[in-house]
Amino acid sequence: MSDINKVVLAYSGGLDTSVIVKWLQETYNCEVVTFTADIGQGEEVEPARAKAQALGVKEIYIEDLREEFVRDYVFPMFRANTIYEGEYLLGTSIARPLIAKRLVEIANDTNADAISHGATGKGNDQVRFELGAYALKPGVKVIAPWREWDLNSRDKLMAYCEQHNIAVDFKKGKKSPYSMDANLLHISYEGGVLEDPWTEAEEDMWRWSVSAESAPDKATYLDLTYVKGDIVAINDEAMSPATVLETLNRIGGANGVGRLDIVENRFVGMKSRGCYETPGGTIMLRAHRAIESITLDREVAHLKDELMPRYAKIIYNGFWWSEERKMLQTMIDYSQRNVNGKVRVKLYKGNVEVVGRSSDDSLFDESIATFEDDAGAYDQQDAAGFIKLNALRMRIAAGKGRNLLED
To answer: What is the model's pLDDT at position 377?
Structure first.
């Protein structure tokens, strides 16, 4: 511990990380630098400055990273149509690489000896933070208090606060029983009644969306403009990446879009039940697949679909900064060169329907696809030879007595 003189802490200003500041100061006898990131969690981050100062912190970093988060992390992920285990849109997972990067950069700027975070020893986030840090700064030292201390309950944390005169904010009203994490892409809920996978989530838990039953009886239409796989305008109004996501979250949530209740397989080995609200991401995924459906070559689209689960697993497990993710990203971004145009979506009581798509780079040829007279654009007689050639291996097998009906 004697070689730890300064630590950069990912600091939210909440109970856990406020305790961690004091614990680091006492346990390691070191200076603590705090880093608070605004990635769209919907709460004021500036109050963290006063809390850190009250704990004796002299170097305080508070940064608005919303545009960088969506532009450099969320959008690249959605170019791959990424979902984990068929459902999860990776809202928590994709935020961790950016935080890890800034922790390392601040550690370099301040000549810190280590970084620290408030992730528990049971979850995925400890893995994501630390894999990112090691990838970007191989010799970095990581301090994970939840794996070291014995303050393993809220009561013990509160007692520690009282003993060390750490101010704790008590918000008025009923305290949420859930563990929540929010950013511009989603908000997640774990714990409480959700620990029983048979128990339905309480309606008053949801914060970003109305229920499908309460959503408007009139549909909402949106025109999304794409350039190289990214949304650049909504209803012909140009927007920055963060503004795009903020707008889709607001409109999608008002129409009951984006609720999810799943049991996922964590990287650390356990199953975990969680609920998520991802209104904007749900719209983005559906719309992006729609614009790709008319602009991507068939085999390119199929190859992307085959590789997507691997790409999703890489992000979920915390390997954003790995060589394999960068390699896949290069391929994915190359595929988006002609993913330009517009998609019209219809939002109605929790549903997202694609009702139109248009592109100057479209590969859809009406003169070939039509059921009417195609004026010689496609010779239907060619299909007979095509089918026979594709059936050849099966005809040979059947000729050898390998009758599939008798297996």
So the answer is: 73
Reduced to 3 states (helix: H, G, I; strand: E, B; else coil), residue 190 is: strand
Q: What is the pLDDT of residue 171?
A: 47
Tokens matching residue 404: 């599939």
Distances (CA, A) of 239 to 71, 187, 224, 232, 236: 12, 22, 11, 6, 9
> What is the spatial distance between Cα 303 and Cα 297, in angstroms, rounded to a whole number?
10
Instruction: Please say whether the beta carbons of 257 and 351 come within 8 A.
Output: yes
pLDDT of residue 405: 66
Q: Residue 137: which residues within 8 A CB-CB, separation 6 or more? A: 104, 107, 108
Residue 172 has what pLDDT?
A: 46
HSE-up of residue 138 (Cα within 13 Å, Cβ side): 1
pLDDT along the chain (407 residues), means of 10: 88 91 95 96 88 95 97 98 97 96 98 95 93 96 94 88 81 64 94 93 95 97 98 98 98 98 93 96 98 98 98 98 98 98 98 98 85 73 92 88 67
Catalytically active residues are 16, 96, 125, 179
Radius of gyration of the chain (CA): 25
Q: Which two tokens stand for residue 293?
A: 């459906």
pLDDT confidence of residue 346: 98
- Token pair listed for 134: 């090691």
Whole-structure pTM value:
0.92
Burial 1-36 (b: 16+ CB within 10 A, else e): eeebebbbbbbbbebbbbbbbbbbbeebebbbbbbb
In the chain, DSSP finds a helix count (H) and a strand count (E) of 13, 14
Where does the chain hold its CATH 3.90.1260.10 domain(s)?
A: 179-296+338-358
| Biggest CA pair distance of the chain | 86
CA gap 318, 342 in Å, rounded:
33
Helix (H) or strand (E) holding 300: helix 298-316
Name the DSSP letter for residue 75.
H
DSSP assignment, residue 153?
S
> How far is it, in rounded angstroms, from Cα 342 to Cα 235?
10
Answer whether CATH 3.90.1260.10 is correct for domain 179-296+338-358: yes
- The CATH number that domain 6-76+90-163 falls under is 3.40.50.620
Q: SS3 of 96, please?
A: helix
Cα–Cα distance list, 357 to 223, 225, 291 (Å): 9, 10, 6
